[in-house]
Amino acid sequence: MVRFDIRPANGGGFLWRLLSGNNRTMATGGCQCATRAECTAQMRRVAEVALVKRPRLVHEDDGTWSWSLDDGGEAIARSAAPYSRRIDCLRAIDRFVDLADDFQSGLAEAPAARPPRRGA
């Protein structure tokens, strides 16, 4: 089971992330949102696009690999971290795609934005 999480961003606004059943971050939003409602709309768009479009593999300038789910030329979701090996990034894409059907239920569980944890 996956779930979306909305957090306040440093300097204002909000960021979202997609968490796996074991609370590992699988994806993050493509950009910072001004409001929680904007984050929720972006998460809904990711849920729709992920069912019909596969994320693209990105080879970064530093030699690492990442992925991006694009919609209309705009990144709406990205890998949560860079991967040192291409195969690991491809596996992460497969996990993301395999869980796309669960995104709608994850949206229903999206909690209200909460303040950052102490020491974070």
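^ that was protein a. below is b, sequence first then the tokens
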Amino acid sequence: METIVNKVAESGILTLNLEHLLPAADTLAMFDIAPYLFKGMILREKDFRTALQEMDWAPYAHKKVAVYCSAEAIIPMWAYMLISSWLYKCEAAPFHGNEAQLKEQLLNQAIDALDVQPYTDGRVVVKGCGDVPLPESAFLRISARLLPVVKSLMYGEPCSTVPIYKKK
């Protein structure tokens, strides 16, 4: 019988799955300003202050919090500052934007902090078809981080890649 050889395993290709850099869901929280709008249009300072004071902030403790307004309204800058002061008290980190924007920002921060040393002079494939849709910015950013150190960069799966870059 002929031995089956796994050429992909023998190729020395390093796979980088950006999904592994995504923050865990239990570390994130969302704060929508829309429920606090008077008649769905304006934010009244006194009412908003009272609502924030009466609110249970425990679900936000030690989390990264997306602060946004799902309604078409102009939110005064002081409102963001008030929310931030309450999040500060429960040791939460505020981010402006919706959940997708928060995840994108955190993913890009993780890419910026990634140790690229293990990929030096390597043949690297950035995993493509995953279970979670990833923002385009992550692929731009990981390419910028890896191009200075890798021998070659590819996109896709180790068995079927799209060549991106090859060092001369």
